[in-house]
Amino acid sequence: MKPVHIIVVLVLVVICALLTLLQPVGDENLAITIEFAGSFHPMVLHLPIGLWFGVLCILFAGTRVKSLDISNWLLWGTALVWVSGLCAYGSGIMLYLGGGYGDAMVLPHMKGALGFIAAVAVFGLMVKARARLPWLWAGAVVVSIAVGIAGHLGGVITHGHLMEKAPWVVLREASVPEPEVAPPASEPPASDAITAFDAVVLPILEEKCIFCHGTRRAKAGLTLTSPTTILSGGSQGPALIEGQADDSLMIKRILLPNQHNQHMPPIGEPQLTPEEVAVLKWWINNGLRATVDDIPAEHGAWVKSSVSNTLE
Predict the structure, then answer these.
(1) I need a surface site. Which of 24, 79, 131, 169 has the fewest CB within 10 A?
(2) CB of 243 closer than 8 Å to CB of 259
(3) Spatial CB neighbours of 54, under 8 Å, sequence gap ≥ 6
């Protein structure tokens, strides 16, 4: 085995490791382009998994039939796994750089995928060096564990933790009786204990915005789950300016023409109604710590209904 092969593999693995240090891009137009490239990740990521299964089949055949020369098949099969793994890794990086997901969810998956790429690289070098079958099987076990870990961490991003949906967990939670609620000893607390954000603003955001700007997925690094995170903003800066609704980025994006590439929510998604926009603007203009008692009656039945549901 030539030293140049080892050097090339090490350089590519190091480059993949360095890519994990990148942060989502701040330019909106560039982010849209990068996220489009990353949208091919769900299609590409299955290639290395399927090809690796083929490599295992070749290795099994070579183990069962001693006279069978599998060296070239094994080498080219592993090379295809590695190249397709690099493509899947690159498209995943693009998806992350487009700002579609938060660090806490993506980084473990990225590190798991990096471990898979490194493990396949080592296995390929073992094949190239014509290692004995027991050593190849040991390497294959490591690669299989690595692909399992990377796949599991990727599934957590889109489907949540596996054990949360286990039948015994779901059935146990369903069997827990509802706690008995004692009748109130006095009048219920005044509505000023509930903020306007919790009562009317958050329901709007949960219905129209938080799918892309929540804790699990935060496009452009923006999370809209609390006044604090909204003020912190994302890659474009704070989403609002307290007391200045018309100058706040979130309101500007909402009011852009539907066909504009920066209009929010994106075309095809449920759009905010004029009443909902009016509530958001009132909330921004009148203080983020306003209570439901501060909401003017002019905002109509929608606000009354939302407040009533919250108080229940």
Answers:
(1) 169
(2) no
(3) 77
Q: How far is CA 198 from the centre of its chain?
A: 25
pLDDT at 100: 63
Does the reported pTM lie above 0.70? no
Eight-class DSSP state of 180: P
Contacts of 300 (CB under 8 A, 6+ apart): 275
pLDDT averaged over the chain?
82
State both tokens at 181.
Answer: 């609620």
In the structure encoding, which two tokens stand for residue 92, read together? 């995943």
Cβ neighbors of 96 (< 8 A, separation 6 or more) are 22, 24, 38, 106, 110
- What three-state secondary structure class fits 291? strand
> Which residues partner with 213 through β-bridges?
218
Parse the chain into domains and list their residue ranges: 3-164, 191-311
Are the CB atoms for 38 and 100 separated by under 8 Å? Answer: yes
Q: How far apart, in Å, are the Cα atoms of 46 and each of 40, 151, 189, 194, 241?
A: 11, 10, 55, 48, 44
Q: What is the pLDDT of residues 219-268, one digit of tens each?
A: 777 888 888 888 888 777 888 888 898 998 899 989 988 887 778 887 77
Cβ-contact 49, 151 below 8 angstroms? yes
CA 144 to chain centre: 24
Identify whether the C-beta of residue 43 lies closer than 8 Å to the C-beta of residue 54: no
213 DSSP 8-state letter: B
Phi, psi values for residue 195, rounded to 5°? -75, 155
- Six token digits for residue 101: 């997901």
